[in-house]
Amino acid sequence: MSFNFKLIFFLIIFIKLLTSTAWSQIVYINMEKLFNESMVGISLNKQISEINSLNEKNIKKLETEIKSEDENINSQKNILNEEELKKKIANLNSKIKEYQNSIKKNKDNLNKKKIEGTNVILNTLKPILSEYSEKNSISMVLQKQNVIIGKKELDITNDIILILNEKIKKIDIN
What we know:
By secondary structure, the chain is mostly helical. It is built from 6 helices and 2 strands. Helix 5 (82-135) packs across helix 6.
């Protein structure tokens, strides 16, 4: 009998905690939506895409040059002497290495720019969230990805996007 009483008492306390005002002060924000739909997020994504396109164009150009040189060497194999052939193959291998280094450098540079841009947005976002939380008596803001179930009314993403759009419209990562 005392076990049931303790269980009932625990359930009553637990339900009371769930319905208390402290729980209603927890909200969540969809960071992915914020980065995809805010003006500054769109600006960052557009610049990243442009840099990536330019990198791909340059890589394709190098790739074409390498293929052309490889075909040229293959067509001249029987004509060139061994020393000239080795020289051309060494030159081709050097271009292949340059190509591989260029791909890595472009990827690293793009990731660095993406991180820098994201940090600028996050640094702008921190005081916005702090002020919003203070004005609306919010005790905790969670990322949506960490919320299993939550009422749509607790999602502050659209409000924060509006405020962020007023504060910062674009950033330059070039």
